[in-house]
Amino acid sequence: MKKFLLILTVSALSFCGLEMASASSSSDNDIVIINKDGTKTAPTRGGKAKKNSNGTLFLRSAAEPSPRPTPKSNPKPKPQATPAPSVSKPAPIKPASKKAADSKDPSIRIQKKSTPPPADDDLDEYSHIATIPDPAAPVNRGTFWLNHQLYNYVLRPASKAYEFILPLPARKAIHNVFDNVEYPVRVVNHVLQFEFKRADLETRKFVVNSVAGVGGILRVSDRIPELANIPPADTGQTFAKWGIGHGAYVVLPVVGPRSVRDAVGMAGDYALNPVSWLSFGGVGGATALAVSGPSAARNINEKINLYDAATQNAIDPYIAVRTGYIQYREQAASK
Asked: Which pLDDT tens digit goes with each residue over 255-303?
């Protein structure tokens, strides 16, 4: 009975409702047939279903159950894997500027290197005092004191008188003449040092200054580049080139500081100097003094100037002179 009533209801709806559906712009596909084969679109004609349709007619909206709303779920986020910490190379530390190094930032202050305070000038001058032994230091200091008095009270006034009597051009001419006369000292030691090119240049220099310079009064060689700066040579320097050490440090009266090696070399220079030959050649004392006097005067003047330069503002003049002498001789031997 219920089935029959359901069929009648559906039939009535199919005839009445289809008209309304067509009037309200419903499409032909809104009517479906439900049978044992399932649900399918009913054949229509003019917007109305055919009466001989095999199956029960239903509206599609009534036949298809409305989809149930799915509850919204808040899925828990999956835990993400923590990436492994990347090991990066430390950036190179750039040297901080002076302004940055003085700032209060500890990261900058770490880069600041502590530099030792600058050494005192006088102490820096004594950095090479251990390069030569000084076993007779008490005796040397005593001789140094005597020479100091001699320099200040005898030789210094004589040097001032020499400068006062002779003007600069005359003193320069005397220096040039005696420097030219000492040619044998230099050329022999150049040969002994196997510096044959220097010996050749020294000979050419001597000839140029003797001829064009009127016996060496004028240093014409200074205008020739290859002859202007020939390194000097003496016997003590030759001994150093041969590998002979300084020996002990000694202070000679009047002469001043020397090493044992240079003291022996000074004797060789004296033997090679033509000025000293006058004393061995039977020349009278007055003549020898007249010839050697200007040379001694110019040597005294140079010695006083060097002594003043070494002892000026020195804490210990003895050590200052010793250090200056050693440095000068090592520099001369290295040329």
From this structure: 999 999 999 999 999 999 988 877 666 555 566 566 667 777 778 888 8
Rounded CA separation 31/14 (Å): 8
Token match 């007055």: residue?
286
Angle at CA 263, nearest 5°, toward 260 and 264? 90
Nearest one of 252, 236, 253 to 331, comparing CA atoms: 236
CA dihedral 121, 146, 257, 269 (to 10 degrees): 150
Q: Which of 137, 127, 148, 138 is nearest to 311 (CA)?
A: 148
Going by C-alpha positions, the residue among 217, 221, 223 that lies closest to residue 202 is: 221
| Angstrom distance (rounded) from CA 276 to CA 280 | 7
pLDDT tens sequence across 3-39: 555 555 555 544 444 444 444 444 445 666 666 566 6
pTM of the entire predicted model: 0.59
Neighbours of 307 (CB within 10 A): 22
